[in-house]
Amino acid sequence: MASLLQLLHFLSIHCLLLCGIATSNQVPKPYVVYMGSSSSDSDGDVQLAESAHLQLLSSIAPSGERGRASLIHHYTHAFKGFSAMLTENEASILSGHSDVVSVFPDYILHLHTTRSWDFLEAESGMRRRPRYMHVSSDVIIGMIDTECATGPKKLAKGYGFYPEMRFILLVDGNKSNTSLITRPSGLAFLENCGRGYSLNQEKREREYGLNPSFNDKGIGIPSFDGKEFAWRDLTSKSNCNRDFQSAVSLGDGKAYRGSAINFSNLTNTKTYPVVFGKDVAANFTPTYEARNCYPGSLDPKKAAGKIVVCVDDDPVVSRRIKKLVVQDMNAKGLIFITEVERGPFDSGIFPFAEVVGVEGLQILKYINSTKNPRATILPTVEVPRHKPAPVIAYFSSIGPAQLTENILKPDITAPGVAILAATTPHPEPGSVPVGKKPSQFAIKSGTSMACPHVTGAASLIKSVHRGWTPSMIKSALMTTAILYNNMRKPLTNSSNLSANPHEMGAGEISPLKALHPGLVFETTTEDYLQFLCYYGYSEKNIRSMSKTNFNCPRNSSEELISNINYPSISIGNLNRHQTAKTVKRTATNVGPSNATYIAKVHAPVGLVVKVFPRKLVFLQGLTRLSYKVSFFGKEAPSGYNFGSLTWFDGRHSVRTVFAVNVE
């Protein structure tokens, strides 16, 4: 009898659970119905499509709920489709329709990365203005990331600069295409992993030609029509005011700060023998290889159970490889000594700490001066309010530009070191503590982290200034960029030296300051086409590219590229024995209609820089004024000379950085 009652009780609970699940499946939720790529933007076709979508919804709605068939959003630009409130059963039925590619839930997105945006806001010296909280929406900017990781990909969710500016990221590593999903307001990130479809092809590096597959309706990578622009190869990377540190504690009681992300189980209560790589070298291994912990350079019998110290003399062998080499020796941990701070490296549960310069030498000195040297590596701790920040990362691409030195690169700097980012959980053995699940997020560094910050800032500006072109937005970000760190000192690089424009571009982005730049330098379609002329493209190719009857200037040479109306100035060759070289710029007033700007030049000793006129007077109805800047380098030192030209009107400070190569 008891068994029968237990069975009935189990069946009743099971039935309730099943009924509950069935009921929850029939609760309408927002879904996106994807119907393929967009084919037309005409009003008539849009209305017909919307009507067809409503009929499609009505056909699957229960007879008593036909009134529920309504569209939440109608998509026509990036792709064709709509969103609506559907039950799971209705979504399943729709997914089988011949006109429907796929149906997926329209998820609510949550804020994940906050530190870098808060840091940018704090560095701007401005407080967020409430009036922007309601206008920074309904903007979609696509960023194509061409740095592909191997392995399966996942859907990552997050926010941009403000909660209204949402984005989702769908990357597809299995198909030879690029996946794109957007919301009505947001920032769309694409990772392009298709075979033969990558923007990092050698051809792109050799030429400025167009890829028509990215020029459909102005969606994708930029053409030279000024409609779109990319930031990937133009952005330098910097850290934020948050650090991840792992202390190295020696047997003599001294401790040194290390940089790392590790889940070490070592503690201060126990130390282990510590050895230099060269002292545990395998037989017949060169000292140089052992000190750098080359694969196969260490003797497992000598290294097992010890903490091994490796140096960074050879950058070809990465930190990850050194860590695997030492870990395979059954060592207790790795102390990595480098001359340049590289940012935190994720070593999983294996004890790892990176120390820089003098502190590394102190550790080696301790090893050499002690009969029985011992040490331990402590787990990572977060260090808030880290200083100095921002610092230009060691792995940032630096100028001058390879294809032409008459355009200054990089353009700008943005947070790209130790950024919390969504990731695909595919942990290696030993990367996750026992009993813990792999995280869907990781601390990452690189251009793939910096680029979205600039893109998000651009979307903020676009949402406030709807009529601005991408080049105006780019100019606003560059001319208002920050040159000082959170210690109120000039920005530095990873070697603790002052950063120059070839390392940081115009400086660190300040999204809030960029909302009110005062003046902007708009790079027009004609500028881009003239650039191609100056670079050496034929009129025939340019006309075919631009679908215009554009004529190149009679005298076209590469040095004229410096005259392109860009928010910075670069001169690849200034002959000290010739007359001054002059470039022209045209400023557009986007501030008060009546404004007077005065020029101020900051130039290195020996380089003579003159501006004419030195005053720009914008009156009602007069929004564009041109000026010239001359550079004379007779007394200037050889090589690149850096400086800036700033226009002041009492409220706005519009800075144009310049780089001049004197020969």
UniProtKB/TrEMBL annotation:
PROSITE patterns: SUBTILASE_SER. It comes from the Eukaryota. The keyword Transport does not apply. One of its GO terms (biological process) is proteolysis. Residues 31-112 form the Inhibitor I9 domain. The keyword Cell division does not apply. Keywords: Hydrolase, Protease, Serine protease, Signal. GO terms for cellular component: extracellular region. Its main location: secreted. Pfam families: fn3_6, Inhibitor_I9, Peptidase_S8. It is found in: Secreted. One of its GO terms (molecular function) is serine-type endopeptidase activity. Residues 563-660 form the Subtilisin-like protease fibronectin type-III domain. Residues 363-506 form the Peptidase S8/S53 domain. Residues 1-24 form the signal peptide. Belongs to the peptidase S8 family. This is Subtilisin-like protease. It comes from Morella rubra. The lineage of its organism: Eukaryota, Viridiplantae, Streptophyta, Embryophyta, Tracheophyta.
